[in-house]
Amino acid sequence: MEIVDKLKILADSAKYDVACTSCGVERTAVQGQLGNASSAGICHAFTEDGRCVSLLKVLLSNACAYDCAYCVNRRSNDITRATFSARELAELTYGFYRRNYIEGLFLSSGILGDPDRTTELMCEAIRLLRDQYGFRGYIHAKAIPGASEELLVRLGVLVDRLSLNIEFPSESSLKVLAPEKAKEAILPPMRFVRDGIKANYQDKRLSVVKKTRFVPAGQSTQMIIGASPESDYQILTLSDHLYRKMDLRRVFFSAYIPVSDDPLLAGVHKAPLLREHRLYQADWLMRFYEFGVDEIINEQHPFLDVLLDPKANWALNNMEHFPMEVNKASYEMLLRIPGVGVKGAKRIISARRERRLDFDDLKRLHITMKRARYFLTCKGRMEEGVLFDPLSIHQELTRSAARRQSGRVLEGQLSFLTEQSAGSELVMWDSWKSILQGLKGGDRISVGSGGARGL
Asked: In 14-162, where does DSSP find H-type helix?
């Protein structure tokens, strides 16, 4: 099979894994090698439905020994199978990076035989990229549940970030929809990676060289939303547990898209991307605004309001704190005002040292007044024309959300490498094909020529 055909198959097969992240790691340029990485993160590019495409997101192989009901690459699916050699994958990544099409690599794979063999092949491809091609850019790999600890260490010292996908919010759903996977194959490796990171990237028991950088950008996981019956409350409770107990950098949510025929999922429809979006907003409140899960959602009302962002929903359920006077409120309470973010709260604290703020000042400070205006006062007064009434505020905010959603049809995750897609995707695919043709024809660039490229 031609390498261009492999790329098209394996990039398309990887599009349902959403765990593309800002890198969160510093790696300086070195003369004679290629690239660096900055903790400020990757400058993401997005498809029309908001999916990140700035990494080369690809599978090593879509030949999988497992038969998970929700997966397009499941063993029983009648699809074209392909597998990269380690050399092919390293060369592709190197060539695309040199031409400024990508900013790093996200590598996953189907289970090619067994977890250990698959992990060994991934390690070999990344080792070639690092050692022979001198690649110092960002690499995120999805670890294979069931792989040995020794292989996890080998992989962890080659990459910047590892993810171990927990797949579903409950063990019961995992048993039903992915019977060949088990909680026991996911959580212990997750703990192992956590402990390796805590141990200053050392693990003498497994003979890791002292001061080796082991998963310097931390680990993450992903949950599929909507293929199983768990509520948003269950999902966020599990996410909170993973952040606190596993020290995860990110929990990713992926709205379920039917890609495989299975009786277990016969009545399950595509999950709305807006639900995924609200979960990300709630996750943000937990990580950066010090909200507890039970403040955002509870067992009595276990699903997030899709027409109201979680922070505004909290405010409407806790109106005793409002309206809040911006010239007196603490930093912690300013963060609770819808429309006021971390930067906005800091700007308010700094600006009010000089003067008492009014509504024009807040607009100059780039506070989102469309939401904040209902929940704050300046100099003891609300903005002119604003009625402080929970029902009216709820109606106005949900009406605005409904207007924003009207006419916007999010049909799911787009393929980065599909010739049927319109506009920029087609242009990008044509460009990548020309690169591949150049590589095939022997148009190679010597390692180290042209200096290092920064992210």
From this structure: 86-98, 115-127, 149-156
